[in-house]
Amino acid sequence: MRAQLSALKQLGVTDEHLHTDRGRTGRNRERPGLTAALGAVRDGDVLVVTKLDRLGRSARDLHDIAAELAGKGIKLSIGGSIHDPGDPIGKMFFGMLALMAEFESDLTRSRTVEGMREAAKRERLLGKPSKLSVLQRRRLLADYESGEYSAAQLMDISGLSRSAMYATLNKARQEQRGCNPAHPRTRRPCPPRRYRPRAQIPI
Question: How far is it, in rounded angstroms, from Cα 119 to Cα 7?
Answer without folding.
Answer: 37
